[in-house]
Amino acid sequence: MQRITILGATGSIGVSTLDVLARHPERYSVYALSAHSRVAELAAQCEQFRPARAVVGTAAAAAELAALLKGKGVRTEVEYGEAALCAVASAAEVDTVMAAIVGAAGLAPTLAAARAGKKVLLANKEALVMSGQLFIDAAQQAGAVLLPIDSEHNAIFQCLPANYGRTPQGSGVAKILLTASGGPFLTRAVETLDAVTPEQACKHPNWAMGRKISVDSATMMNKGLEVIEAHWLFGAPTDLIDVVIHPQSVIHSMVSYVDGSVLAQLGNPDMRTPIAHALAYPERIASGVAQLDLTQIATLQFERPDYQRFPCLALAFDALRAGGTAPALLNAANEVAVQAFLDLRIGFRQIDRVIAHVVEALPHGAADSIEAVMAQDALARAAAERHIDGLTR
Ligand code: NAD
Ligand code: MG
């Protein structure tokens, strides 16, 4: 029996994870669930999965959850705040942690799970983008097993040779090919992009996801963050990673070998496949996802990304090449800009301009401690807020 903590249980990945767990009650039990503010949803999850502990964002949310659970007769211990998130991610009773909080808020608990040597199922790409080598080293020192949930990285993981080391050296890998759908604005006239609404940006053609990652997919910052994620997960130099637009999202990514072979992982675009893969690895379990019908899909298309249309992708490559805390600055500025777009404070095309402004204005330093990374994160957030204030005044 594997005992699991889900950080971000009420989100899109959290709900998909619980869906897979519910199909295999003989293999998995839930130790802890967390949510930020959706208390009623979390209460319903606690009633169904009976975790020992549940964590929310504030004391008020905790009181509300405790009252709801009491009414249902559910004896889950309720806690709140970051220290509690770190505690349920690192507790001795836990084998596996699904890291599915969105954004920098997930860094501390995800790192706590890695430092405690857990099996870490990594959906929270922002945590790895920010902390890079620090995170990889912490996981290695503690003997944590890192399994990627991001569909591209999960696909690459499946396509790499079984004896792959920490870097591509000696593996015969020539290229890592990250596929990208191109999002909802792949063909929309560039000069009309300033007018798009949050609802249009969040309407992804192939995937149903949280709002932040949906906007990231529309700007292709998501792919930029994934390039950085691939760099750290697979020890791959920047020039070994290519992005290929593939609008159908059927090929989830590929690995190209020196002998000319290209291995790809295919499937219907449903996150329950990578979640089930990582949960059961190296075994295979049913996920509830329908078998892929290639004749139904009929056509697979590919094209090169257009950096004029998607400047965020270029900004992410630049940050990765710059190194140090540059990816943390990029990530923080992006989080603030995306939230400002969702709050109707700035237009869609101002997202990339805010990020470019912040990474140009702030010098990046060495990413030699989590404290240094968090300090840069805070500086970038403040700089992004100031810039947005200036734009909207
Ligand atoms: P979501 O917005 O649907 O859910 C986010 C979860 O994080 C919720 O449970 C929320 O309660 C929690 N949360 C939000 N802010 C928090 C805070 N400040 N402190 C603590 N908890 C907080 O997001 P999602 O789409 O499920 O994505 C989660 C992560 O997985 C992101 O990092 C995303 O990039 C990654 N991811 C998602 C998908 C997908 O298909 N949804 C695919 C690949 C990677
Ligand atoms: Mg992805």
Overall, the morphology is: globular
Number of domains: 3
CATH class of the largest domain: Alpha Beta
Mean pLDDT across the residues is 97
Largest sheet: 7 strands, parallel
Structural class: alpha/beta
Strand adjacency order, main sheet: 4-3-2-1-5-6-7
Question: Which percent range fits the helix content?
Answer: 40-55%
Radius of gyration: 20 Å
Please name the defining characteristics of this protein:
393 residues, alpha/beta, Rossmann fold, Rna Polymerase Sigma Factor, Chain: A, 3 domains, 7-stranded parallel beta sheet, 4-stranded mixed beta sheet, 16 helices, 47% helix, binds nicotinamide-adenine-dinucleotide, binds magnesium ion
Describe what this molecule looks like in 3D.
- With 393 residues, the protein is of the alpha/beta class.
- The chain folds into three domains: 2-148, NAD(P)-binding Rossmann-like Domain (Rossmann fold), CATH 3.40.50.720; 156-269, no CATH class; 323-392, RNA polymerase sigma factor, region 2, helix turn helix motif (Rna Polymerase Sigma Factor, Chain: A, Orthogonal Bundle).
- It contains 16 helices and eleven strands.
- The chain has a seven-stranded parallel sheet, sandwiched between helices.
- Strand 10 and strand 11 form a beta hairpin.
- Helix 10 (221-233) runs parallel beside helix 13 (311-322) and helix 14 (326-342) packs antiparallel against helix 15 (350-361).
- The chain is globular and about 55 Å long.
- The chain starts with a strand and ends with a helix.
- Bound molecules: nicotinamide-adenine-dinucleotide and magnesium ion.
- Nicotinamide-adenine-dinucleotide binds next to helix 1, helix 6 and helix 9.
- Magnesium ion binds next to helix 7.
